[in-house]
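Hey,
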Amino acid sequence: VSVKALFDDVYVIKNVLYDSFDSEFIDLTKWEESDHSVREINNGKLRMNEYGTTWRSSTYLHLTTPVTGYLESKINVQSGSLVSGNGTGFARIGAYFYNSELGPGSYNEYQGNVWGDVRIVLEDDNSLTATASLWQSTAPDQSAGPVILDQSFTKSINFDTEYTLSMELKGSEFIFRCDDEEIIYQIQTPVYAPYEPYQHLATRIYPEEGSAVSVKALFDDVYVIKNVLYDSFDSEFIDLTKWEESDHSVREINNGKL
């Protein structure tokens, strides 16, 4: 079942307009939910948007299939994404790819797990960059750990343009790609299977106090095995055999309507 509805011109006192939804963001002085979140398939693309004014918030789609060495998706950050004031946001693919300290039978929960992601970042000045990062958990509960790689691609990134982002664990090399550009990280530690694989597509925002951030992103053509298509989002609904979240969720102001 799908229900698509537009709301406008809300009154709580007769003849006194409460909200006409003419602003970019939901007015937190009038509504308890100040964040906007979108997760839906539309025209053969996964649309995931995140808007907010008060705190970090994210929209996710988690793969049911563990990532064992490869993850790829096309990402298009759309115009209309913006930072008003100060903050940042991104659209990314990410996963735990390996454990650098412990292997099966000796895990101390997430200790040693290494997270990799490649993202398109909406910068504070409303420009876009593509970056690669690796983070290592040094705590069993993932509460601490160093960033072991944080590097930007040299490629210019534009709004309303689709880029193919991927990560590949290949022996002692961790290869990040943005279209045909590569960033290669040479692993200096053992490489064990990660504790409890975890993988997702995501949009996230970090608005600073008194500011607002929106990230509007399209995802398409996901691969978890190189050259073997996992999902092209050509169905009407999210495929629950491939993704943990089968529901679509849309709450946003668009063209003066909620």
